[in-house]
Amino acid sequence: MSALKIKKGSNKHSAYNLRPNFSDMVERHTLAVIVDNEPGVLARVIGLFSGRGYNIDSLTVAEVDHEGHFSRITIVTTGTPQVIEQIKAQLGRIVVVHDVHDLTVEGRAVERELALLKVEGTGEKRVEALRLADIFRANVVDSTLDSFVFEITGTPEKVDAFADLMRPLGLVDMARTGVAALPRG
Question: Which PROSITE patterns does the record associate with it (predicted)?
Answer without folding.
Answer: ACT
